[in-house]
Amino acid sequence: MTATALLFRDDAYARSCTATVLAVTPEGGVILDRTVFYAQGGGQPGDVGLIVRSDGEKVDVTNTVYGSDRAQIVHLVDTEEAARFTPGDNIELQLDWERRFKRMRVHTALHLLSVVLPYPVTGGAIGDGDGRLDFDIPDAGLDKADLTDKLNALIARDAPVTDRWITDEELDANPGLVKTMSVKPPRGSGRVRLVEIEGIDLQPCGGTHVRRTGEIGQAVITDIEKKGKQNRRVRLSLVE
Ligand SMILES: [Zn+2]
Predict the structure, then answer these.
(1) 195 C-alpha vs ligand 1 centroid, how far in Å?
(2) CA 59 to CA 196: how far, in whole Å?
(3) Separation of CA 163 and ligand 1 centre (Å)
(4) Which residue among 5, 80, 82, 230 is least enclosed by CB atoms within 10 Å?
(5) How far is the CA of 44 from the centre of ligand 1 (A)?
(6) pTM of full prediction above 0.90
């Protein structure tokens, strides 16, 4: 089975690409050989946008998900529209960039939030213009205004955000790396993608990020909810 090439991994700013149809599922899924569409995962929703047929006709992509083996990415469209695709068709993909860029800004802001609140993260989600992280925090006493100030101070540093792949062996050879990371890397797949916000954060992540923290723009902590004795759900929102 041919895996889908994940172009968004190498360049989160790629808004369109040409691709070839590999297969079509009965559920309205169009599987392509390559994609700039992020597939739903890690608390981030799947991308939406358009598939443009070679005759220029446009088909809405309503969500993007991983196939059952996680090697292929499935672009969900109307089932009748999907039936009109044939393996081998050449198409163009066009991302709903406005929505994706907001998600990239929120996602990167959540990395910063995990630095402002250096506690174990138990969950998280990214919306369009807002997001949340759940923390295992033994005691309350969190202040929205204080967290907002700290978050915006990190954003204002306009730190570069970069990613790199390292092998499990490189990880083993650099035990200090794990110590500096805010999240422990998953083991077993042979390699790990590290995302670094220079001087601020280092953690394994497969998501899409902005190039510099300044691109997030102003953010505000909108809510701190109590979720059980040891859990706080902290919500942030972009200020447009
Ligand atoms: Zn990330």
Answers:
(1) 7
(2) 36
(3) 10
(4) 80
(5) 10
(6) yes
Of 91, 7, 88, nearest in space to 47 by CA: 7
Q: Is the pLDDT reported for residue 70 higher than 90?
A: no
Beta bridge partners of 59: 51
How much distance in Å is there from the Cα of 197 to the middle of ligand 1? 10
pLDDT for res 221: 98
Centre of ligand 1 from the C-alpha of residue 175, in Å: 21
DSSP code per residue over the chain: -PPPEEHHHH-TT--EEEEEEEEE-TTSEEEESEESSPPSBTTBPPP-EEEE-TTS-EEEE-EEEE-TTSSSEEEE--HHHHTT--TT-EEEEEE-HHHHHHHHHHHHHHHHHHHHS-S-EEEEEE-SSEEEEEEE-SS----HHHHHHHHHHHHHT--BEEEEEEEHHHHHH-HHHHHH-SSPPP-SSSEEEEEEETTTEEEE--S---SBGGGG--EEEEEEEE-STTEEEEEEEE--
- 213 CA → ligand 1 middle, Å: 12
- For residue 83, the CA-to-ligand 1 centroid distance in Å is 35
Q: Is 240 exposed, middle or buried (0-12, 13-18, 19+ CB in 10 A)?
A: exposed
The letter for the amino acid at 154 is L
Query: Looking up tokens 């997030």, which residue turns up?
Result: 216
Residue 230 confidence class, pLDDT cut points 50, 70, 90: confident
| CA of residue 160 to ligand 1 center, whole Å | 13
How remote is the CA of residue 132 from the centroid of ligand 1, in Å? 13
